[in-house]
Amino acid sequence: MTDSKAVDPKVKNIIFDWGKTFHDFDLDVHFNWLSRVFGIPRHHFWHIFSQYPNGLIFPYERGLSTRRFIERFREESAKLCVGRKISVPSFSDEEFVERWNMIIDPSPPAKERVSLLRKLKGGGYGIYFLSNTNQAHAAHIRGDSRRGNRFSRFKEVINLADRFFGSSDTDIRCRKVKPSQATKPECEKIFRKVLAKIGALPGECVFIDDTQEYIAVFQGMGGRGIHCTGNWTKIEYELYHAGVRWD
């Protein structure tokens, strides 16, 4: 094990991705519901939501309102129904959002991950989340006051974090993007915005994400990166060897 003298005083902040890194999600949960409601196979909805670059998820994660997101889905799904000569089903905006939020794993956050956040916080590190996420999911994770903070299982996590940065936040409104999909300035834009908000240099931060391409962008800016493969013992090991200490 590395000696404790190897602590790196330059590392001051840990930035975690959310989905598939800190907590899981499953888009198929929503696609399954749509398939039942519309009575057609779920794969017909993939291009409407997730086909890059025109899927509705991408502008939604850059700040498109939930109301407009649902309106655009109704417009696109109506075309799908006309093409298949089936009736457009009826569902409320509230039901759509409730089903949309079911994408997020309903389990409580993993205890050992919350424990690590506590220890890092106790060690004086800044704790941040940076997620490609939309208005509804960001509200769901933070605890939407308009719904009486009904979604509270992440309360401790959000309180431990200095901030949860959502790509759809009004002062962010840009996504993490892969170098194969955008120019270097476009790829770096969200990181530069977040670093400015934190008041930190790239080299003062460790960024943890399940997407290697996003990590490569941050490393190219002079930051440190850890690829999350699902094993948090590995993440703790790599944090330790990056000079981060908690106990």
UniProtKB/TrEMBL annotation:
Domain of life: Bacteria
UniProt cross-references to Gene3D superfamilies, sorted A to Z: HAD superfamily/HAD-like (3.40.50.1000), Putative phosphatase, domain 2 (1.10.150.240)
Family annotation (SUPFAM superfamilies): HAD-like
Protein name in the entry: Haloacid dehalogenase
Coiled coil: none
Organism annotation: Candidatus Sungbacteria bacterium RIFCSPLOWO2_01_FULL_47_10
